[in-house]
Amino acid sequence: MDELGFGVTGENLHCGTPINPASPSVVPGGSCSGSAVAVSAQLVEFALGTDTTGDLRIPASFCGVLCFRPSHGVVSTLGTLPNSHSLDTIGWLARDPHILSRVGDALLPAAACGLKGKRQLVFADDCFELLKIPNQKTVDVIENAVRTLPYGFQPPKHINIGQYISSNVPSLKEFCEPSTKLQEGKSALKALCTVMLLLQRYEFKANHEDWVNTVKPKLGLEVSTRVLQAVNFTDDNIKSLYIVRTEWRAALKNLLKDTGILVLPTMAGHPLKRNSKQRLSSEFEDKMYAFVSIAALSGCCQATVPLGNHNDHPISISFVAAHGSDKFLLRAILDMYSAIQEQIVLASKLALPPVIDRDVDTSELLKEKGNNSFKRKQWSKAIEFYSGAIKLNDTNATYYCNRAAAYLELGRFKQAEADCDQALLLDKKNVKAYLRRGTAKESVLNYQEALQDFRHALALEPQNRTALAAEKRLQKHLR
Which fold, 360-478? Predict the structure, then answer.
């Protein structure tokens, strides 16, 4: 385990870095790297660990094993050294969902609710937009798996969780950076993880400041940085951190109620190479902590399930249920697991869709209907019409570019970027495609690539006001 439960890579200055059995060239993740490696290497059937801000979920994702972080306070932490008592939990890892569930039977109180009725998956679309992993390996796998189950699940729904947070956690506003309407949800997600980290620093300082200042322990660079941030933490507005925590738990309970399960990515990307001098980028950390803060700050339970590999590294997905719904969530994972494994295999063999006969006149009519819907701000309807036009004629760059604009309005940035990619393959001088792809990339904090797109647009139209303003704005971000 990383020193003081603070690391996220699994590297340890004193004991060395455990080898990741699922991908030996990369770090195993932390802080509970030993537990994850032991389970992944089949040395044990399950392992326990602490999870404060992702300490079990991160290595579970990197090592390709199942993980369960219980609701805060449901499993006793008596006998452990606290990191942050408002966030600390005792969780567990396993390779087999039946083992994961049986450990839950042993540790969870009888009051931790079991099956409550037909479950409904709620996909956090804006979180998946932040990934560079195609939806067919994540969202589609889960949706297709649930469709094959004969009973027990309602049709899934999709939401922008960032916008939901922004609208339902009023005290979070003081932690949000100024943002456009389009980026409001992204700002709320970042603010949520900021509150989580500030709360952790405040409570760690209260618990360990005297010891750190007296002993002056020799710590690894990553851990030392986090410990110093905590010990040097000063903030007079501590009360607001606890208010946000309370509001967020209530808001998530209201969203999920008794039968909802939020679906979101576990991690933002692939782990670092072993023994690399490179450090985690601020962009990677922002996304990673945004994902883990959803359960950590609300105190809700979360299960992490591996989804095979992407680019030769394990990937996973997570499920979050309301506080106290631990056995309900474990049962849902057990019911879905076999179907998920079947869909992972099918996704890896996914063939390209067949070519559809073209009908130019009809496709143009559908495009016009899409344009009319767009003007009326009926974004989803516009997407349906543009998609129909593309099915009939997939060589028209305008159709893709128009659909990208509608995706942007819905905050579905990954789909917008993909449509702009296709538009530019068909028409390399499509200025709107560069502008919209740049907007999509900027919205997921990919500032360098966004700047390149806006500069491409300026090369084609030197006086384009949108591109000029974006260039100026992004240069400030990249300083």
Answer: 1.25.40
